[in-house]
Write a structure and sequence with these properties.
Distance between the termini: 39 Å
Helix content: 40-55%
Shape: elongated
Number of helices: 9
Number of strands: 6
CATH topology of the largest domain: Arc Repressor Mutant, subunit A
CATH class of the largest domain: Mainly Alpha
Number of domains: 2
Strand order of the largest sheet: 1-3-2
Strand content: 5-15%
Order of helices and strands: HHEHHEEHHHEHHEE
Structural class: mainly alpha
CATH architecture of the largest domain: Orthogonal Bundle
Amino acid sequence: MDTQPEILSFVKAMASADRLRIVGLLSQGSKRASQVAEILGMHPSEVNRHFEQLTASGAISEADGVYELNEKAIESLARGQFEGKRPSYVPKDNQEEDVRKVLKNFLNADGTLKKLPPMGNKLLIILNFIVDAFSFDANYTEKEVNTILRRFHVDTAALRRYLVDYGLMARESDGTRYWRVKEQTK
């Protein structure tokens, strides 16, 4: 089961000081909406809006108008985040083993870079992966190149420089135009 949407919903529900106060109050015991409104000095309709979001996230549950903290659901979400089942990047089967290993070690599950590898063969493997985001028959402005590179790593200047230095992309001397050059073998 993928817990990412569930944890995202939970975090969004907890992103309100009022909802955190409600959760804190319910951690002391079950309460009706009117009790929560009175204790926290909130309008009942506001409490109900917060209850809707907290219930949808699974943080609280309701039975016969009584709300309580859903400790088991919260505990399950927390365990899911810390049980070591973090997704990782899965390279394509048709790639060489050394390429697959480098990609798996340096890329997150979404294809972004964990960190830039040191100069050399590992960096070239990563650059060959990144350059596939660019078309051969297109010209790019520096801004467009940065937008594409930002999908992979925040240091777009370094990536731009490496792509040019390793001969995977070329640019005008003033940096106004970039283009992908024909593929080179490793």
